[in-house]
Amino acid sequence: MKAKATIRLMFASNKQLSALINALTPEVHKQISTRSKVGLSCDGQMLVLDVEANDTVALRAALNSYLRWINSTITVLETVDKAL
């Protein structure tokens, strides 16, 4: 059974969106699992995360990983912005 999910996240800052894309692109190009495939793009001010997996367990694992990385990256970017 194939499982798919698309997550769209709106960003107010192009700078933050660009930094996030640059941070996650190496992860997308180096797929660590054969059970899931991830695509990352931007649509205007929106980050688009497409995940396709062989099953719902693999889908959930990939989504959790990428959403945690996105959250961590945003937290770091916000901390850096506050420090400047």
Structure overview:
With about 80 residues, the protein is of the alpha+beta class. About 50% of the residues lie in helices and about 30% in strands. The chain has two helices and three strands. The protein has helices spanning about 15-30, 55-84, and strands spanning about 5-10, 35-45, 45-55. The N and C termini lie far apart (about 50 Å). The model has no long low-confidence stretch (mean pLDDT about 90).
Pick out its properties.
84 residues; alpha+beta; 3-stranded antiparallel beta sheet; 52% helix
> How many distinct beta strands?
3
- From the alpha carbons, calculate the radius of gyration and give it in angstroms: 13 Å
Regarding quaternary structure, how should these chains be classified? single chain
Whole-number average pLDDT?
92
How much beta, percentage-wise? 25-35%
The amount of helix comes to 40-55%
What structural class is derived from the secondary structure elements? alpha+beta
Order of helices and strands: EHEEH
List segments where confidence is low: pLDDT < 50 over at least 5 consecutive residues. Answer: none
Ends distance: 48 Å
Shape verdict: elongated
The strand line-up of the biggest sheet is 1-3-2
Q: Number of helical segments?
A: 2
Largest β-sheet summary: 3 strands, antiparallel
